[in-house]
Amino acid sequence: MLAKKRILLVIGGGIAAYKCLELIRRLKERGAKVRAILTTAAQEFVTPLSVGAITGERVFTDLFDLTAEHDIGHIRLSREADLVVVAPATADLIAKMANGFADDLASTALIATDKPVLIAPAMNPRMWSHPATRRNVARLKEDGVLTVGPNSGAMAERDEFGAGRMAEPMEILGAIEEMLSPQQQILKGRRVLVTSGPTHEPIDPVRFIANRSSGKQGHAIAAAARAAGAEVVLVSGPAEVADPQGVRTLHVESARDMMAAVEENLPVDCAIFAAAVADWRVADASDQKIKKDAGGAPTLHLVENPDILASIARHHTLRPRLVVGFAAETEQVVAHAKAKRERKGCDWIVANDVSPATGIMGGDLNTVHLVSAAGVEDWPSASKAEVARRLVARIAAALGEAGR
Ligand SMILES: Cc1cc2nc3c(=O)[nH]c(=O)nc-3n(C[C@H](O)[C@H](O)[C@H](O)COP(=O)(O)O)c2cc1C
């Protein structure tokens, strides 16, 4: 997919620099040609020797390097690439890029380039959330720079947790592939509906019952369907992630709101129900905040919520041609998914194991099984974006087979 593509990789001085070696290997495996610039700080974390051994190319470190300047020059270096990738993008490099600094080879190449730029920020959560970094990242986005990550999770520093971990090499690779491979409009002319995120079921005006769904997988599917040319409606519960670009996103809170929004947006060619819809709601949610001293702990009486997947899959007049459900299970994943497919009357179930040990709920990776009438496919672990692209490709193929 990346055969003969030329990547200029700018490696900044962060702990995550070691992950670049893996990224370079994966890029090379796919046929890309990688040239690397290491900042001075980056050389404290990885050596030009190891980067050069893996790229199989000369490594560039100095702006005032007569041999390099004679050979290729910093301007050519930045232009003779299809894409410039900055990973790890340190707070410092991001600040320099946002403000147009050019006081070393990395920053000079970055301001001299006329090619698309992708950054993979990596830093301590406090550095990432600092107003200066927020401003700089916003400015870079306005300038058309694309970002991948950062992810949330444990930091290299002990006891630190939060957003700032560099995206994993496979995720960066996915973003690179997305930028460099012309997106085929395999869903052009199709209408796709996606649900995503958790639902919030009110107990009273200030409290609710929720679940740990982040919305990452559903939103990634909506984005992938859009990138494939579909007209996409995303019905989203209160998700942690931003609305995907180019997708009409309807924000809902409860399962009943989600059901109504889904019904209002039929007919569609394909509906993908990735939301983690609450099975139950409180029967008699209070109009006023329940007071602690009103006679001990309240008893919540739960009633079943509408089953969105089953009602749409069994809809008499407006059933989409392809109905895809999700099954989040913590045990007997495939067996439960098979049973769910039969019970709900949908075409496919995408099943995943959401036991806490897998880190899938809220995480960036997913390992899924596609359960259909034809059997069960076990997909390898991949980023949620990659799972989304693969699912979209399958949907396009299935809709194509069924005829337009
Ligand atoms: C052990 C160590 C780890 C560091 N990790 C990071 C990091 O992950 N992200 C970051 O933005 N800065 C990090 N820094 C600070 C940068 O190395 C420093 O800001 C440096 O000037 C960045 O230079 P560069 O942007 O030219 O690579 C770290 C510093 C040290 C000493």
UniProtKB/TrEMBL annotation:
HAMAP family given in the database record: CoaBC (MF_02225)
Q: Which Gene3D superfamilies does its entry note?
A: CoaB-like (3.40.50.10300), Flavin prenyltransferase-like (3.40.50.1950)
The highest taxon in the source lineage is Bacteria
Tell me the classification of the organism that encodes this protein. Answer: Bacteria, Pseudomonadati, Pseudomonadota, Alphaproteobacteria, Hyphomicrobiales
NCBIfam families tied to this protein: coaBC_dfp
What is the similarity comment for this entry? Answer: In the N-terminal section; belongs to the HFCD (homo-oligomeric flavin containing Cys decarboxylase) superfamily. In the C-terminal section; belongs to the PPC synthetase family.
Q: Could you tell me which pathway this protein works in?
A: Cofactor biosynthesis; coenzyme A biosynthesis; CoA from (R)-pantothenate: step 3/5; Cofactor biosynthesis; coenzyme A biosynthesis; CoA from (R)-pantothenate: step 2/5
- Reactions it catalyzes: N-[(R)-4-phosphopantothenoyl]-L-cysteine + H(+) = (R)-4'-phosphopantetheine + CO2; (R)-4'-phosphopantothenate + L-cysteine + CTP = N-[(R)-4-phosphopantothenoyl]-L-cysteine + CMP + diphosphate + H(+)
Annotated CTP binding lies at D279, K289, P306, D307, I308, L309, F326, K340, K344
Gene name of the encoded protein: coaBC
Identify the residues that the record assigns to the DNA/pantothenate metabolism flavoprotein C-terminal domain, covering every copy.
Answer: 187-397
What Pfam families would the database entry show? DFP, Flavoprotein
What are the start and end residues of every segment in region (Phosphopantothenoylcysteine decarboxylase)? 1-191
For this entry, the protein name equals Coenzyme A biosynthesis bifunctional protein CoaBC
Mind listing the GO molecular function terms for this protein? FMN binding; metal ion binding; phosphopantothenate--cysteine ligase activity; phosphopantothenoylcysteine decarboxylase activity
Gene Ontology CC annotations of this record: phosphopantothenoylcysteine decarboxylase complex
Q: Where is the Flavoprotein domain?
A: 5-179
The note describing how and how many cofactors are bound reads: Binds 1 FMN per subunit.
UniProt xrefs under InterPro entries: CoaB-like_sf (IPR035929), CoaBC (IPR005252), DNA/pantothenate-metab_flavo_C (IPR007085), Flavin_trans-like (IPR036551), Flavoprotein (IPR003382)
Organism encoding this protein: Xanthobacter tagetidis
Which cofactor(s) are needed, names only? Mg(2+); FMN
Alphabetically list the UniProt keywords.
Decarboxylase, Flavoprotein, FMN, Ligase, Lyase, Magnesium, Metal-binding, Multifunctional enzyme
